[in-house]
Amino acid sequence: MTYREALEIVRRHFESLFPKTCSTCGRRFVSLREYIRSTRRVGQAISYDAELGDWQTQQPMGSLAFSNCPCGSTLVLSTDGMPLPQRQALLAWVREETERQHITPSDLLERLRSDLRTQVVDG
After folding, report:
1. 3-state class of 76 per DSSP?
2. N vs C: which end of the chain shows fewer Cβ within 10 Å?
3. How confident is the model at residue 74 (pLDDT cuts 50, 70, 90)?
């Protein structure tokens, strides 16, 4: 899998999560683009499976990316609902890339997250 392919898989999955509504203020985000433009990133994206070194999991814990709604409430985009073979392929890619580049899974996911946000807003 290439970086571009991984980015496209994550983008398609995250786009499928919309519309999304803040449970605190009721604000409705109709698209990933609106969500990215309206929210503020919080912390680093994390893959719990990668952090645990569970690279071939049959029951993924998943990956999360947190953002704050304009009201201040924390919102999350997750890999929950992504088909297991796709999640496993992404985990294999994360493992390969982190070993090749000598970086942490969160570093790689943050790069992916930044590029995704730029692609969606500019694209």
Report:
1. strand
2. C
3. very high
Written as six digits, the tokens of 107 are 């570093």
CB 17 within 8 A of CB 9: no
Tokens of 92: 């294999």
Q: Name the nearest CA neighbour of 105 among 89, 94, 116.
A: 94
- C-alpha to C-alpha distance for 123 and 103, rounded to whole angstroms: 28
3-state SS class at 15:
helix
Give the pLDDT score at 123.
Answer: 67
- Global pTM reads 0.90
pLDDT one-digit tens code per residue, 21-69: 999 999 999 999 999 999 999 999 999 998 888 888 888 888 999 999 9
Nearest to 90, CA basis, from 118, 55, 41: 55
- Closest Cα partner for 108 from 53, 52, 46, 49? 46
Tokens found for residue 79: 């890999």
Instruction: Number of helices (H) and strands (E) in the chain: give both, helices first.
Output: 5, 5
